[in-house]
Amino acid sequence: MKQEIQDLVNKGLMLPLMEEFYTIQGEGFHKGTAAYFIRIGGCDVGCHWCDVKESWNANLHPPTSTDVIVANAKKYSDTVVVTGGEPLTWDMTALTDKLKAEGCKIHIETSGAYELTGQWDWICLSPKKMKLPTQGVYDKAHELKCIIYNKDDFKFAEEQAAKVNSDCILYLQPEWSKRDTMIPMIVDYVMANPKWKVSLQTHKYLNIP
Questions:
Q1: Is 209 flagged in the annotation as binding?
Q2: What pLDDT digit, counting tens, does each position of 119-147 carry?
Q3: Is 181 marked as a binding-site residue?
Q4: Is residue 103 a known part of a binding site?
Q5: Phi, psi of 151 (to 5 degrees)
Q6: How far is residue 10's CA from residue 162's CA, in Å, rounded to a whole number?
Q7: Of the candidates 77, 86, 162, 192, which lies 20 to 30 Å from 155 by C-alpha distance?
Q8: Helix crossing, 93-101 with 66-73: angle to 10°?
Q9: Beta-bridge partner residues of 164
Q10: What pLDDT, in 10s, does the model give residues 27-39?
Q11: Average pLDDT, whole number, for the chain?
């Protein structure tokens, strides 16, 4: 990558854009609502069950001007979801400032592994054992979404719930390949511990992106 482009990426003025698309939010608090998704490449958290592993290597995704990303987003929706990869690998300040200037509501889906940058209307924190969130993300998260791959993940979920702010909404979501096994366990757990809610990847059931 040319140095001048790398400098713009480092400043968040260009970002490794993997894909962008208009669809229905399938998970968590805003499920069922229309949103424009911006998927940023680059992630070193390395979840073995990640369903977008092609996002991990930022070098595979072209550095794209935030002006271009914002221009595309505003054609479709006033709700924008920034996801990855791990978007907080990069400085999100420029992107979110420009989206805000266009009147957008901006959501982020993050593992929280890096310091929070940018201004957000909604922060969905989905922590991973391999690289735990920073305290700043715990403090500001609006929803905590813990992925349940096996029964040991309930303990991890409780540990994470103890670290977020008191207004944070708590979700347990089955890992897709384990849904048949884990959904009954999650249902029983939520009934026994009603501070939690069940989240499903409804977009997969609906067969939409």
A1: yes
A2: 999 999 999 998 999 999 999 999 999 99
A3: no
A4: no
A5: -65, -25
A6: 33
A7: 86
A8: 40
A9: none
A10: 999 999 999 999 9
A11: 93
- Cβ–Cβ under 8 Å, residues 206 and 18: no
**Is there a binding annotation on residue 123?**
no
Residue in the block written with tokens 């922590």: 127
- Give per-residue pLDDT as tens, 2-24: 888 888 888 899 999 999 999 99
Fold of 3-205: TIM Barrel (3.20.20)
Confirm whether residue 83 is marked as ligand binding.
yes
Ordered DSSP codes for 14-39 = EEEEEEEEEEE--SGGGTTSEEEEEE
43 annotated among ligand-binding-site residues: yes
* Residues paired with residue 138 on neighbouring β-strands, in sequence order: none
The response to whether 104 counts as a known ligand-binding position is no
Q: Comparing C-alpha atoms, which of 9, 31, 16 is closest to residue 79?
A: 31
Q: What is the pLDDT of residue 1?
A: 65
- 24 marked ligand binding residue: yes
CA–CA separation, 159 vs 101, rounded Å? 37
- Complete DSSP assignment for 106-145: EEEEE---S---S--SEEEE--BTTBPPPHHHHHH-SEEE
Helices (H), the chain: 3-10, 66-73, 93-101, 135-140, 153-161, 179-192, 202-205
The answer to whether the annotation marks 146 as part of a ligand binding site is no
The reply, when asked if residue 51 is annotated as ligand binding, is yes
140 annotated among ligand-binding-site residues: no
